Please model this.
Amino acid sequence: MNRSVRLINYTRLLIITLLLTTTKSWAQDTLRSGKVITNAQMIGIGAVNILDTYISPEIYRGSELRYVSHSTRGNGSKLSRELIHHAQLTFAKNRVRNNQEVGGYYNFQYNWIYELGKWNLGKGELNLKTGGGVDVLTGFLYNTRNSNNPAQGYARLNIAPDIIAAYSFRLWRRSIQVRYELQTPLLGVMFSPNYEQSYYEIFSRGNYDHNIVFTTPFSAPSLRQMATIDFTLHHTTLRVGFLGDYQQTKVNGLRQHVWSNLFLLGIVRKFSINKILP
Amino acid sequence: MSASSKTIRHFVFTFLSAIILTSSITSCVTTDEYDDNSKGNFEALWRIMDEHYCFFTQKGIDWNEVHERYSRQFDATMTDAQAFEVMTKMLSEVKDGHVNLYTSFNIGRYWAWYEDFPKNYSDSLERKYLKTDYRIASGMDYTIFDDNVGYILCKSFLNNTGAGNLDNILLYMQPCRGLIIDVRNNGGGNVNNAEELAARFTNEELLVGYIQHKTGTGHDDFSSLQPQHLKPGKGIRWQKPVIILTNRSVYSAANEFVKYMKCCPKAKIVGDKTGGGAGLPFSSELPNGWSIRFSACPMYDKNKQMTEFGIDPDYKVDISSSDFSRGRDTIIEFARQLLH
Model:
């Protein structure tokens, strides 16, 4: 009897020891990295104004639908990274509305951002950041009526400086952040037909004629700015704002612009990453 | 002054400077749109042609003089029909079948390149030669005549020419002593389709012509001439004689096809001169929404000669009225004789 009681006690002790050891080892293998990811998923709706003289000398006006994913990855230091995706669809008509152009674009930005500082300003805190990165754009514009120039393809790569100002404060017992971000391409390369060069000549015959063009703020004076307000409602952080995206180029005798003014609505989520070692 | 406020001021100064600098160098890239009235539409049309049309110099046209002559005819009281008529008349100055003005009520055109010449083709004769048991593939009608001569009627290059279709057609024609490809009345289509077909008639890469494009708004702003090479087609290639039948309605991509075939060693061109149309057409539009098409990229033959006004056949043959009344197509019969 004593023996069996002793065995039970040993077993209990072993289980408790094992449990404690295991718990202890989990606690030791969980590394808090300090990485914080702030991701905003937004839908933008608004007006677009399009010109591409390769397709038409007329300006087309219409509407745009855009999806924006905006992520900031910080690790507790002053340096953070931004990953931004834009996917946009445009539908625009000419002046007399008897012809349509359909456009589709995808833009990816990878930015390195440096925090200049934080200052208490009024009842809130002002955070200023600056940096820059790579800005890639691909897309197309299709004219539903043209013959041998029915569409234009876009491919651009830019080095683009970035500037961010964010002001956080509390109002009506809620945390609110007002944020403004401005980006403008500095130098880049882009694809373009040379004035009246047909796509048949470029792709079927393989005739190259200044189709890769270097761009500067003079030949591609573009600007992308976003002003947003983040506020929390029932544990969900919402973002509303304005996106002004003005992409322009004048290369190879061709003029192009896509001016978008969009209302943004989305949600913001913040993640903290913990590494768990096996 | 604290260090932090100094940094803020420095930042704001830099920020504003960047904005001002960006604003000063970032001007709007846009265009001056013409008014949507008869005068504005005329000016827009004249400007589009002035900056984009590719044959002014070769055709010896003084486009400024054309502006002088026609601008006086436009005023605010003009109806759309009247404006269309005068614009079409102005466009016909360039004598180009690729220049068209498209409206919802009419298409402005210059078709004298074939309307002023014998048709050299007849639907009733076509029916007589094809009979009813002919085959159809890739938009082409084909049959074998009683004298063992293969006949392919290719009315358009709009349909995609499938490699498998061409293999089937040429395999069917394999026992024939020779082949006739009838492109009379073929007004063109996709130049890639014309190239695909022509590639079945060469065993080696051939220089067949040159192409260039405008590089600016000036009438003589052109790229250098780039050679056009015809590569041997993948699949079955024809090794026997082939004859191409032409008339004045052979235009654009069909004109290119004739240009390619003229370089193939076993091919001969029989019939009338082709209609031409050697400028790859682009489209544009006027403020009132009318669409305009014009020649944009000129193409030349292997001797760098313009084919805009047509290509001469190796054998000039017209359909004679006596043959026609007897139900004979003089051009087809001539080709059959050549193949015997």
Residues 2-29 of chain A form the longest helix (28 residues). The helical segments of chain A are 2-29, 199-204.
